[in-house]
Design a protein that fits this description.
With 424 residues, the chain is mostly helical. It has 18 helices and 6 strands. The strands form 2 sheets. Strands 1-2-3 form a 3-stranded antiparallel β-sheet. A 3-stranded antiparallel β-sheet has the order 4-5-6. The structure holds carboxymethyl coenzyme *A.
Amino acid sequence: MSVTKMAINGKELELPVIVGTEDETGIDISQLRKRSGVVTLDTGYGNTGSCQSAITFINGEKGILRYRGYPIEQIATTTRFPEVCYLLIYGELPTQEQYTEFREGLTHHTLIHEDMKKFFEGYAITAHPMAILSSMVAALSSYYEAAEDDEAMNLNIVRLLAKAKTIAAFSYKKSVGQPFVYPQNHLSYTQNFLHMMFSVPAEPYEVPPVLDEALNLLLILHADHEQNCSTSTVRMVGSSETNLFASISAGINALWGPLHGGANQKVIEMLQHIIDDGGDYKKYVDMAKDKDSPFRLMGFGHRVYKNYDPRAKILKESADQVLGQLGVDDPLLEIAKHLEEIALEDDYFVSRKLYPNVDFYSGILYRAMGIPTNMFTVMFALGRLPGWIAHWREMRLDPAGRIHRPRQIYTGPKMRDVVALAER
Ligand code: CMC
């Protein structure tokens, strides 16, 4: 192991240097405070590695994304979502036998406990489906015990993957006042979800193959993205040995915000707003550049990608194909392309390396599937589930794992004395 030297308050320290398999280099400062009395400060963690992980590799400068070493472009065109779940969680693509067994598990655990259906009665009809998803996922821990061994952990993992899509579809049915539609065992993961969303008792929904493929692609592209806000939340919460369901519920809540997974809903609202306002997209590019305006181009920019987000590239092509095959002419797609064109040539965006991210085109595909805008972030969550689970499992199985507990630089008042109120 190599070391690097650092001088702090005149004292020279040797710190270990950790090098990853893709030559990413980190200075291990875990003993820094003990040895020098100082901590590091990195608001927003832009420069801090919180863990060592073997799951996903991103090179944001080059626009590279790999799951367990496999390029996203290959994974996206050759696999089904359950295979990707298996790959992320267990480290290897499944053999045929493993795949069959895993897929059967995902099918046979799709039902939620009948008592859980009563929970839906308590939500307001206007409840955001992310509120329902996160609370229902946390509620799964009241039905299934925390895992004590590998077998129990694997069972809870399969239960969660299988039931989350049922909860998501039921949350939609609740919002439109339709009866819940039960899963069918002969359908695939993606078909089953679309069936539970769009079938009604009078008419079962025949899933068009083009939508099945598009959903498979969307879920795969969202499946993992290393230490983003929600995944770090899952690891943070799970580090106190919180059970799987409660940890993932925390991740779902972290995803909800508009700067993270909530951006896909905001992109569509922004595009619609531009159209309603006369379609002058240049005005919105100018607003995004104006430092006196809080407006940002939603679906643009990324903490890690300083190049075109490879997921957005794939989704842009797919949006064109899917809308073409369905014969849908969505004016939002046109506005999105114009915005992208102008932003990619504008010095403000070029100099800051701001490119479209995964959320820029995903909403257009979800719209084409008939998924309502307030369900978009739920779709992101369904896709990200295997990533969260993989990170939770990796952390829990790491013998060197510790509870996450960052330090801070305190900036409040110095010690002072309480002056008691005369009357209490
Ligand atoms: N529109 C206009 N300006 C932007 C945008 C944008 N969308 N994004 C960043 N900037 C500017 C920002 O004002 C700053 O300018 P300056 O250097 O002059 O102060 C510079 O670019 C760097 O931005 P930052 O806010 O320091 O970057 P960050 O890494 O902290 O934030 C981000 C990343 C994704 C939160 C941000 O780019 C953003 O708010 N984008 C819009 C929301 C969005 O699309 N989020 C989805 C992210 S991808 C899905 C996911 O994984 O969550």
